[in-house]
Design goal:
With 185 residues, this protein is mainly α. It contains seven helices and no strands. Helix 2 packs antiparallel against helix 3.
C-alpha cells in the first residue's frame, strides 16, 4: 500500500512538472511571437513613412531615379519579410536605401528647410528607435525561450511537445544598422 502511494506521488510530481513546464514554454513562445509582431509593426510603420519621404525628395531631385528605385525595393523586402533572417537582409537593404535618400536630400537646402520633410525625418528617427527597442525585446524573449528549451530535463519534454528554438534577429552587416540613419544639415 505504501509503495503504491509513493509511486502515485512520484507520477503526480512528474505530471505536475510536465504541466508547469509545458505551460511556461507556451507562455514564452507567445511572448516571442508577440515581440516578433512588434518588430513587424515598426518595420511596417517605417515602410509606410518611406513613400512620403520619397515624394518629398522627388520634387527636388527628380533625376535621382536609382535612389528612389532602391528605396522602393527595400520597402517591398521589408514588408514581405517573414522570418528574422529575411528581416535582417531587408534591414541591411533598407539602411543602405535610407542613407542614399538622405545623401540626396543633403544636396538640396530648400528640401532640408521644408517643414514636411523635417517632420518626416523626425518620425523616421522615432520609428528607428522603436525598431531598436522591439528588436531588443524580441531577442530577450528568444533568449529566455531558447534557454528554457535547452535546460535539462525541459529539453526532453520540449521536443516531445514540438517546441523548437527560435532565431535571434541578427543583422548580417552590423555596421549598417548600428545607428539610425544620420540626418545632417
Amino acid at each position: 500500500m505504501l509503495t503504491a502511494l509513493i509511486i502515485i506521488g512520484i507520477v503526480a510530481l512528474i505530471g505536475i512538472y510536465v504541466w508547469v513546464t509545458y505551460n511556461s514554454l507556451v507562455t514564452l513562445r507567445v511572448r516571442v511571437d508577440e515581440a516578433w509582431s512588434d518588430i513587424t509593426v515598426q518595420l511596417k510603420r517605417r515602410a509606410d513613412l518611406l513613400p512620403n519621404i520619397v515624394e518629398a525628395v522627388k520634387g527636388y531631385a527628380a533625376h535621382e531615379k536609382g535612389v528612389f528605385e532602391a528605396v522602393t525595393q527595400a520597402r517591398a523586402e521589408t514588408i514581405s519579410a517573414q522570418s528574422p533572417a529575411e528581416a535582417a537582409v531587408a534591414e541591411n537593404h533598407m539602411q543602405q536605401a535610407l542613407k542614399s535618400i538622405f545623401a540626396v536630400a543633403e544636396a538640396y537646402p530648400q528640401l532640408q528647410a521644408s517643414q514636411n520633410f523635417l517632420q518626416l525625418q523626425s518620425e523616421l528617427v522615432d520609428t528607428e528607435n522603436k525598431i531598436q527597442a522591439a528588436r531588443r525585446f524580441y531577442n530577450g524573449g528568444v533568449r529566455e525561450y531558447n534557454t528554457k528549451l535547452q535546460i535539462f530535463p525541459n529539453n526532453l519534454f520540449a521536443k516531445m511537445f514540438g517546441f523548437t528554438a527560435r532565431e535571434f534577429f541578427e543583422v548580417d552587416d552590423i555596421a549598417a544598422i548600428s545607428e539610425p540613419p544620420r540626418i545632417q544639415f
